[in-house]
Structures
1.
Amino acid sequence: MKITLKVWRQKNKQDAGHFETYQLDNVSPDMSFLEMFDVLNEKLISEGKEPVAFDHDCREGICGMCSMYINGRPHGPLRGVTTCQLHMRSFKDGDTIVVEPWRSTAFPVIKDLTVDRSAFDRIIQAGGYISVNTGSARDANNILVPKENADKAFLAAACIGCGACVAACKNASAMLFVAAKVSQFALLPQGQIERKQRVLNMVKKMDEEGFGNCTNTGACEAECPKGISLENIARMNREYICAALTSEK
Amino acid sequence: MATSPKLDAKIPEGPLQEKWTRYRSTVPLVNPANKRNLEIIVVGTGLAGASAAASLAELGYKVKAFCFQDSARRAHSIAAQGGINAAKNYQNDGDSVYRLFYDTIKGGDYRAREANVYRLAEVSANIIDQCVAQGVPFAREYGGYLSNRSFGGTQVQRTFYAAGQTGQQLLLGAYSALMRQVALGQVQMFARHEMLNIVLIDGKARGIIARNLITGELERHFGHAVILASGGYGNVFYLSTNAMGSNATAIWKAHKKGAFFGNPCFTQIHPTCIPVSGDHQSKLTLMSESLRNDGRIWVPKKLEDAKAIREGRLNPNDIKEEDRDYYLERRYPAFGNLVPRDVASRAAKERCDAGYGVNATGEAVFLDFAYNLKYKYGMMEANRLGIKNPTEQQLKELGRPIVEEKYGNLFDMYKQITGVDPYENPMMIYPAVHYTMGGLWVDYNLMTTVPGLYALGEANFSDHGANRLGASALMQGLADGYFIIPYTIGAYLSNEIRTKPISTNHEAFVQAENEVKDQINRLMSIKGKHTVDHFHKRLGKIMWNKCGMSRNAKGLQEAIQEIRSLREEFWKDVKVPGTDKEFNPELEKAGRVADFLELAELMCIDALHRNESCGGHFREEYQTEDGEALRDDANFSYVAAWEFKELGNWELHKEELKFENIKVAQRSYK
């Protein structure tokens, strides 16, 4: 396949950035999208040019590190697929593909397609855990969880923290990410003790980090590679209102 | 054989069952006020690193945690699919601590240390308790109780799981515990930092040199102790199921400063991975071992059928039952498709080498769900719904939703990568490098031969012998981090309470940093013709062909020469673009490949010296008449711990393995 790439190049956070166009002539349909970028980088290096910096690690769709905005969509055209699991057979010979980094004030560009997502870590630090020290736990089967709740909690916990929801949202909101974590714990008996404080703290932190508000467009759910449901946002809103009205702090 | 005086494993006295309990009751403690003044560096934030950093911080130590990824949550433990073992005996099927211990020692082909493995089995149950308390959403039965499944090399159901994403859920549990400690100010987190050297003062580990991967600046960090939990070195093979960034640099730099390397040649080749599709391939993807619960592995019985499938003239679904060779069930009736990984991998290679491979490259076998989908799950549903004499089509439709629930994400992933629908066609699989049992030699305290330097998880050599059983890596990583190091580090730090933090202007820090600078400057100044990947791919080919699933003396001798000359070529002709004072992924890769080029040689030397076959180490010269691994217990019942002298020169030290609680036998799964 012949592919034309228009790739966002930006030296560092301060640089204004611009698009560069590259041609690749021997793209195999069996290549993953990132393997195509490997080929591009090999070519750029051998031509004495700077390779394109992009984040990636596990290349099996679970670490959440890869993050390309492909033809106007986070992780490209397929539903339920990360950039690393996208294969070139999803494109046609002669296609032009535009590749950009995630765009959000809360995710500043580090270089080219690499952005800083440490805001997500700070949101988790604000309450995305159950406060249990190692060694305090009782026997696992002393905590019973209805299968239905366990399954729902798992589906929420399947979030890989890639940030596609933020990149997809016109407001750059992190609601789906935060809601997934809030839901996981709200659905489980283990999460009940800190339930109210957790949602209040995490939402507060989310706002402080500069993410936008939710206007119920649903782009986050449509683009989430792990299919995290909007239901979680509804649940978080309930949790938040309930906590805000009844919290004694 | 006698154990080398340089290798004191410090195994506590007493009967096996009481060692750990006695140890815990007698190990010196550090009082809480002193803990606040003791600093610990943890490198790596996978299951072992994150759980260690969080648990140590909870105890009150000051912890600094490092990872090269953009967040601690991305460490490659996240990709573990199938599950985690624990001797809970929730299934009432005869499991016990002893049985988990026994399975692990046997699975490792009697090349692991009894005391460590027993302790691992003992704490396994606590891990599940801890993770559930953290809110890890394990699979449940309708009554709300935890669910289990089977894994290879065992005959009980002791594997806990969260769909095909168990590693992800466990890591996010450890990560959340770690983030909690970061918020409390007990852990300082350094993401996008890579450890590039270890600092020794008076023979003790006292810190590291790390590179800030965004700015390129080198940083000096002091610690009263240093813990390496940086994972395995499977990427020496270029193609493996490891993440792209997984590397050996932290343990290799430590090795060059005095930490002995244990059993470097023990590599696990996982039998069920998606086959290689072409030269562009950058990594291989695992299909979870849990699929072997319900998938049956086969190749055609007739060579002409195999050929027709390879050429696309024959659909495998059209091959009659009697013309299929379910070779694992044929060769190993007792364990069938659930034989351990090394056995399953070699059996696949044997069939493909004999010409029965089923994809264009001839290197693939089938993993087929059709049988269980229809006759196990379809029939179960038909019975439940009271459907009499269901048709084949009905069985297929009834069974599919159950298979979807159990393995849906894995089937989707397979389809995404190969473009083939595994509900309709058998999967194609082939073995691929997955895990390294070898790693830094550690004693019972998990301390390396360098005082104050510890190695946890896949980075150490300790528990899996020559072959790791499925669902045991997660168990070991979390055992080391949550339940072992918090106790054993006290034995060392209780003697360090008077050690004041050492200034990073100390000469040892300056020198360690200069060594890093020199290597970076050398890499940047070569300005050769070939990229880092070019060398890495060539190294991978040498290792896969000559130090892979089967090895022989001649091949290994050749490999050593080839690696040496490739290393020389690398240092003359590698091309690293950009500068070292910026975000430069090519420079990161160059440093890692430089280390792989040294480690690869030691792996071959180790494989060459071990004149026996055991577990994942299969020397063609040493096999039984029916092609099984032939151990030599009289001469090789030891851990090979290699001391680095200079490049190309290592000294072998032996730690004798004594089996007092288990009868050593030829491993049989027949």
Note: Chain B is about 40% helix and 15% strand.
2.
Amino acid sequence: MSTAFEKSARTRWLALSPTYLIIGIFMMIPLCIMIGISFMEQNVYGGVHPNVSFAAYQQILFETDFDENLVFDPSYLVIIGRSLLLAGIATVVTVLVGFPVAYYIARQNERRRNLLIFLVTLPFWTNMLIRIFAWLLILGRGGVIDAPLRFLGVLDADGSLGLLYSPGAVVLGLTYTYLPLMVLPIYASLEKLDFRLVEAAADLYSNKWGAIRHVVIPLTGPGIAAGAILVFIPCMGDFITVDMLGGAKNLMLGTLVQFQFSTARNWPFGSAVAAILLIFVICNMLLYARFTRAERQRSGS
Amino acid sequence: MIKTVKTGAIAAVMGLMSSAAFAEELHLYNWTDYTSPELLEKFEAETGIKVVVDTYDSNETLLAKLQTGATGYDVVFPSQHFVEIMVKEDLLQKIDIKGMSNYANVVEKFQNPPWDPTQEYSVPWHWGSASVQYRSDLYDGKVESLKEFFEPSDQVNGRLQVFKSADEVFTLASLYLDVPFCTEDPQDAKRILELLKGQKESVLLYSSESMTDRLANGEVVMASAWNGDTMKGRLDANENIVYAFPKEGVVGWFDSIVVPKGASNVEAAKKFLNFMMAPENIAINANFARYATAITGAEDHFEADMVGAPELATPTVPVVFAEACSDKGQKLIEKVWTQLLK
């Protein structure tokens, strides 16, 4: 005999089953394949031999050098560090640029607000490769930035600032690409913000900066955190921007994975690096979850 | 009555299906800037098969794609040593190439080549060499030695483009250091790495695409090169682009057309293979891509500027063909490239 409760539980499971199926088939299975491959033996011409091996994980820290000794090799830690650094810088810059933009939009009347939000999302309508190509023309030798400087005599006729194919260009590209992902969540939390609180702060003799620091930023914290995660994670894994604006001269986590599957043909190692990338993402999400829970508890009490 | 309507409907559906079958497709996966649109138009007009083109930038990319399983590509264009690897890895289909009507056109010395000794897998496409190209008006030297490429002068500093392919860079560096291709000696690999690290100081970017475009607009003054690509750039973009034949030699390559396992339309692929062994057809692509062919009589259909072109001249310097490396040699190449870009 089934009770009403059991019945409703069963209906709930049935109703949710498509979600479980989709997550199971399109997310969990590929993930398991990836992790499985990371514990297999490399076939030098691509693919894997189905033998259990921990070589991929060992390779992250140790390398047989040219004299055939197994030595500690920090190369991959350097790459991970570089990725963390560039993604971190890009995230900070998007916050610095995105917050004022979101704040400005939130203070407009509704009609204008909707138009401005539409404009923020507009770049997503164009293919990303084309947008990155545009930066090649802007930053490149004799491009949009160099040309007027040459005309003004700041640069020689054949001179260049050499902006393109540098870490700076990569950060710029990442910032540009992922800025909307920062503006939108901040805007969402600013939109809910009761601006009478800001007025109240002013009534209590707070200056503008004080009000922003002690009222606006704490209340929009979850929005900023959500934006930071949305920007940081794809920055860590990005390889198109890094390749095109960085000139493929230094590997980052994303390009390292791509390199393992294309040129190096080391699938287990590529999978192991991807697994590490995944761990970063999960850590980020856990931090965020903790942060929002703490936030909710604080505002609840 | 109802039955008639039903039959009619079935007939209509079958008609639709057969017309869908008639609209055949051939999925072609080739190097960037390597397939003449005019050639495809002619093939489509003659056979009624629609050609869908996708492109790649290196043999490694192609191999990686095929290794991941059924890709649906019907014809692909690997270089000689990658044909060998693909055969070894069981990625290609055997085709009765010798039984094809146009097989007799293949130049005799290119029949049964070392990488496909019984000619069961590959039909010749183009061949040429890899070396260095430079802007003669922006660079004072003549690249008489690969030293000017691997240990560049200040003039080239920050204005050098290098292949984004470990395989191609490694072979060229081996040539310069007089190390055997696919060396298995770690000390040789170490020397190559030191050389490439020194060169990297001057490198603007690693990319195997848009080399002549960047030379034409002066973004770089020297770059890796394939002879036909240089010729195309010289004729279409900037007359000062020069292909160098350094004294150490150039790296030879020979691209073939093969049919991968997992091809979705083998019959169309066979038609394409036979089509490409006709001199007038391969000549259309030669006029576009600016590379030599292995088909007798193709020269008769060449455009005037192909004749006597310096890029296509028989080199007076050594031409060394790249080979398929052993596991050990391949591992060293990978290690050098990772250390270089870490």
Note: The beta strands of chain B are 25-31, 50-56, 75-76, 123-135, 160-162, 203-206, 222-226, 241-244, 250-257, 319-321.
